[in-house]
Amino acid sequence: MLLPKGGVTWKSARARLPPWRAVVVLTRPRFLISLALTGILILLWRGISKSASGMQSFYCYGPSKSPMEMSINEMVAWNAHTQTPVTFNHHEPYSVNESTIHNIDLNPIQSTPQAVEKKERVLILTPLRDAAYHLPNYFNLLHNLTYPHDLIDLAFLVGDSSDETLSLLSSELTRIQSQTEDKVAFRSATIIQKEFNADTGMNIEDRHAFASQGPRRKAIARARNYLLYSALKPEHSWVYWRDVDISDSPPTILEDFIVHNRDILVPNIWFHRYKDGRDIEGRFDYNSWIESDKGRRLRQTLDPNTILAEGYAEYDTGRQYLVSMGDWRNDKDKEVELDGIGGVNILVKADVHRSGINFPPYAFENQAETEGFARMAKRAGYEVYGLPNYIVWHVDTEEKPGNLGDRKAY
Question: So what CATH class is 115-394?
Answer without folding.
Answer: alpha beta
